[in-house]
Records
---
Amino acid sequence: MYAVETRGLIKKYKTKAAVSGLDLAVNEGEIYALLGVNGAGKTTTIGKMSANFKAQGKKVIVAAADTFRAAAIDQLNVWTDRAGVDIVKHGEGSDPAAVIFDAISAAKARGADIVLCDTAGRLHNKKNLMEELKKIARVISRELPEASVETLLVLDATTGQNAVNQAQLFSETADITGIVLTKLDGTAKGGIIIPIKNELGLSVKLVGVGEKIDDLQPFVPEDYVNALFE
Ligand SMILES: Nc1nc2c(ncn2[C@@H]2O[C@H](COP(=O)(O)OP(=O)(O)OP(=O)(O)O)[C@@H](O)[C@H]2O)c(=O)[nH]1
Ligand SMILES: [Mg+2]
C-alpha cells in the first residue's frame, strides 16, 4: 500500500517546508487555506499539518473558519490542542472571513510563521459556499499581499469520478495551488488524480494515509505509480 511505501519520506516534506517557512512579522507569510467538500478531510489534514510545522519549530496559528457548525470548531480545537498550536475561533455562524482576518492579525502580532485556515465543506447552498471562499481569498490577499499562499483542495481518494467535478467547481472559485489526496490508506488508489492533472493542471502535494496525527506524507509520483500496479 502507498502508506507503507513512503512512510520514511515525511522527513523530506518536513525539510522542504522548513526552508520555505516565511516570517509573517515582515509581511512575507506563509498561509494555507484548505478547501473541499464535507468529509474530505480538511480539518484532519490541518491537524496533521499543524503538528508537522510545530515539529519543525514553526509558530503556527490555525483559523477556525468553518463556522457553519459548532462541532466543526470543537473538532478543530481537539486537533490544535493535540498539536500544541494556537487557534483563533469565533462562535458558530460567525463570518469566516472575519475569523481569518483575526487569525492573520494574531499571526502578525505574535510573530507566527504559518497560518492554516480550515473552511466549511458545505453551507446552505453551493453558491453561498463559493461566495464565502472568494471573500476569504480577498481577505488573505488584502492582509498578506506579499505572502506565499497555498490554496489546497482536499479530495477523498475513495470519491471516484465525482472528484473531477469537485476539482472543476472549486477551481472556478479559487486559485487552487495543489491537491491533498486523503484516505489513501484504504483500498482506493485515487486514480482520479490523473484526469485532474490532465484536465485542470492540478498536482497532488500531500497525501493522507490514516486518521492519526503523523499520517500525512509528501506525494511521490514514483511511489504512487508503483502502488497503482501492485
Ligand atoms: N482513513 C483515513 N481517514 C481520514 C483521512 N483523512 C481524514 N479522514 C477521516 O475522514 C473523516 C472526515 O474528516 P474531516 O477532517 O472531518 O473532514 P472535513 O473535510 O473537515 O469535513 P467537514 O468539516 O464536514 O467539511 C474523519 O473521520 C477523518 O478521521 C485519511 O487520510 N485516512
Ligand atoms: Mg472540517
---
Amino acid sequence: MRALVVDHTAKAHLSQADVADPVPAPDEALVRVEAVSLNYGEVKGATDPATPDGALIGWDAAGVVVEAAVDGSGPAAGTSVVTLGETAGWAELRAVPATRLGAVPDGADLGAVSTIPVAGLTALQVLRGMGPLLGRRVMITGASGGVGRYAIQLAARAGAEVVAISGNPALEDSLRALGAHEVHADPAHVERPVSGVLENVGGQQLVDAFAAVQAGGTVVSVGRSSGADSIFPAAALTPTDGRHDRSIRTYFLLADAGEDFSADLTWLAAEIAAGRIDPGISRRAAWTSHEEAALALLERRLHGKAVLDIA
Ligand SMILES: NC(=O)c1ccc[n+]([C@@H]2O[C@H](COP(=O)([O-])OP(=O)(O)OC[C@H]3O[C@@H](n4cnc5c(N)ncnc54)[C@H](OP(=O)(O)O)[C@@H]3O)[C@@H](O)[C@H]2O)c1
C-alpha cells in the first residue's frame, strides 16, 4: 500500500512510499482509509530527528471497513468509520481495534469526520473533566486551532459562557459564530474570572490563564503550541486575594491505552453528519499535497483542521 512516512530529506519531513500492508490482530478491523486529518503534535513530531526515517505516523483517519475483526468485535465490512491510533493512520489501509473506531452515518463526509479523533475527543474529554458547565465561564486558548474550535462548540452546547483566546483578531467573527461569547487576544485581557481553562498554547498564556481562574477553578494544560516555557511569579502561586484551591492539571488523550473511545467517536461523527458541529476544515486537498498542509500547520498559517483525501 501507499503511505505517508517520515523522510528527513523532505521539506516537511514527510513523503509518500510503498510499505507493507498492515496485518490485523484478531480484535482489529482492516479499514480502507479515505481521508485523514493532520494534528500539530504529529506533524511537529515528524520533524524531530529522533523520529526514524520511514516511520508510519498519523493519528486521525476515516474510511470503510474492508475486513471485520475476526473475534467479532467492532463493525461489519462495509461500515464507514472514524479511527484513532498512535501511528500509521496516513496510509491506504489501517488496522484498528473496536475501542478506537466509531461508526459514521451513511453518506457522511469522511473528510469532515476524519477531524474528530484527536481534536474532538480531546475537547470533549477535557470539558467533561471540568464537570457541569451550565452557566460557568470557560476559557479556551489557541481557540482557532483544531482542539480550540471543537472546544468552543462543545462548551457552548454544554451551557458555558465561552471566553475564546486567539492571537488572530481577524478570526473573532468566526469564533463567535462557533459559540464564543467573548474573544480576546490574550488571557491577560480577560476581566472577569473563569472557572475552567482548556489551555493549548503554554508559555506566558498558561501563566496568564492561571491568573484568570477563580477560587476552586482549574487550568487543564493540553498543549504547548507556543513552544515556550511557563515561568510563574511567586505571587501567582501564593495569592493574597482569597482565590485559593486553584489547580493546573495535565492531560493526555491516550493516557489509558485500553480506553474505549468508540461511543464518543460515534457520537461526534453523528453530530458532524447532522451539521450540529462544524469540523473547522480550513484546508483540504489530495494527500499528494501533504507538504503544503504540514508546513502551513507548522508555520501557524492554518487556523482549523487540514484534511487530506486519500486517492
Ligand atoms: N495532550 C493531548 O492529549 C493533546 C491532544 C491534542 C492536542 N494537543 C496539543 O494541543 C495543542 C493544540 O492542538 P491543535 O491540534 O488545536 O493545534 P493547532 O490546530 O495548531 O492550534 C493551536 C492554536 O494555538 C495557537 N498558537 C499556535 N502557535 C502559537 C504561538 N507560537 N503562540 C501563541 N499561540 C499559538 C494558534 O491559535 P491563534 O492563532 O488563534 O492564537 C493555533 O490555532 C497542540 O500543542 C497539540 O500538540 C495535546
